[in-house]
Amino acid sequence: MSSEMCAVCGLPKELCICEEVAKEQQRIVIKVDTRKYKKEVTVIDGLNPSEINLQELTSYLKSKFACGGTIKDNVIELQGNHKSRMKEVLIKKGFLPEQIKI
Fold first, then answer.
1. pLDDT tens-digit profile of 46-66?
2. What one-character-per-residue DSSP string does 11-34 give?
3. N or C: the chain end with fewer CB closer than 10 Å?
4. What fold, for 27-101?
5. Domain limits of the chain?
6. How far is it, in rounded angstroms, from Cα 87 to Cα 41?
7. Model pTM score
């Protein structure tokens, strides 16, 4: 039974709680920007990439909202205006409602 240990919490990788604890410490800001040709982009800022897997979260949000998106400078950008539903989706993903500012 040789399982790798997490360097942060000291638990085996299967039982690691670092990402759940990190979710409780984030201060997320959701806003909508307008780009060229009046295209709207939902911007999710305030996530720490060393604690949260941004690639996994971006893939989840893109599939949930059926849109395109990317990560630029540790900020998630999704095509379209998803501001009204974003908070409830992030809460279901494990983030606290008090941390999310729209």
1. 988 887 889 999 999 999 999
2. SBGGG--HHHHHHHT--EEEEEEE
3. N
4. Translation Initiation Factor Eif1 (3.30.780)
5. 27-101
6. 16
7. 0.78
